Amino acid sequence: MTAPALMRAGFTPATVDDKARTVELVASTGAGVPRHDMRGTFLEVLEVSEGAVDLTRLEGLPLLDSHRQDGLDNVLGVVRAVRFEPGRLIVKVQFSTRRDDVWQDVRAGIIRNVSVGYLPKTWRDGKDPNSGARVRTVTQWELREVSLVAVGADPAAQIRGTTMPPETHTPDAPPANTAPAATPPAPTETRAAANQEIRALANTFDLGSDWANAQIDRGASETEARAAALDSLRTQRAVAPTARTSAMHHHDDPATIATRMGEAVYATRVNPAHELSDQARAFAGMTTLDMARDCLQRSGVSTTGLNPADTITRALHTTSDFATIFADTANRTLRAAYASAPGTLKRLARQTTHKDFRAKTKVQAADIAKLEKVNEHGEYKHSGFVEAKETYAIGTYGTIVGLTRQALVNDDLGAFTDLAGKLGTASSEFEAQFLVDLLTKGGGGGIGPVMDDGKPVFHADHGNLAAAGGALSKDALSAARLAMRRQKGINGRPIAIAPKFLVVPPELETTAEEILAAIQPTKTADVNVFGGKLELVVEPRLTDVKRWYIAADPATVEGLEYAYLMGSEGPQTDSRAGFEVDGVEVKVRLDYGASFLDWRGWYMNEGQ
Hints:
The protein is of the alpha+beta class. Helix content is 28%, strand content 27%.
């Protein structure tokens, strides 16, 4: 690999508009840029045409300083227009008045190199007919940003000037029928190539120009520079971990790559019906060994000479991204299973979040005001409020599953993904049983947890417990509905609650269906007054085969409520290289809690 043949310096930009602070840039000519993947180095070439470049993000597309996205100070301006010339992408950019120093250097021709940040979508792989080197031609790509850089990967990507030649200056390739020269490259060319690779490492891993200059000054080889980059990254991680969010080619976050690999594993090993994203499709054919090599190489670690077991071991203990792959797969598997088995009583409850694990008090307030006649002196009487409160907290529940080193080496993920799916189902089952346990908890002369007034949810004093158990029937349902309609708020006034759900165990399902069935009667006595009025909810976790309930819509009245930790709705996963398990450990965690906030929206009959 030789250093790029840069355009000559000292020209004066001819497209500068001082008043509008705009200038035209040759953003890309598609020139080949060295890239790395699990198979080694290849040359990536961009196809530059209107059909190849996705300009969906054109409006507001940023002009950045050296692809940096870690702050607004790095935004130099904005792209105003894009056009195509044969083999060239031309952009018109407008500079911010905040960065007049950069604008003046552009006007003077001092800053002139341009680079683009892009997301490859489709490509084709081939080989150079002369050298046999791998060449990847990106046929569809999305333009994400344009940057001014010190050294550009594309030698013809520059600020347009009066003396700019129309063609790209690259060394002529030898004819196809001519054998390449056997003479090794000159030392200056080899050094230039190494320097370019060092600066690429500094740019990719945000190590800065000082780091790159230090490596160049000491004459580091590409291999030595990669090792030094890895050491620097380890030091940075220990001192101050940073999370990079860029998904573009210039700053691909290793965690993002790991997530794409995790999606590929999920689609190929767990759920073939899953539609892979464009970004994950490139990893669909990888084995666990391929992914381990890729993670190591992206971290600057050579895998030459490593056997499969050593490669897996080094990936586990050198980079956290390898474990992240399987955590993502486990999370997708767990989430899919969790979503496919929702708890029955969740339909009858209200969902919320808690910002922490401290007990949360829910206060209900109601006014006790009423309008009274104002006396002849114009005196108005004051009204007040009454309130009731219920308190509960969420707790943390979870377990750890392991993916052994042996399974990774054998590329056998079946048992691991099966267990992840079962944990998703178990998480849903845990939530459902938690709500049922609240509903059926006994003691204190009634049923359900004890409320703030010292009485259980279902209690005679609450007017929501049948005085005597009765079999499920039209008359019993009518009495239940009347009791709910007669409920009064904490201010003593009627609140007109209407039941929406009938909750029964499986043993009463047929009886309930008969009562709720909408039929066409032949005489008035056969009219089904409850037809279409209530939704039937059959809860198989209810163990009392005679007891039944009615419940109001949770959107209209507070009753049963369940909560997750804010930002952690449903089961969550974390991963690490194992200590107790020689492999990958994935922790499944659920931050969850539930409680009754009010009894007025529920009614229970013990049945008979």
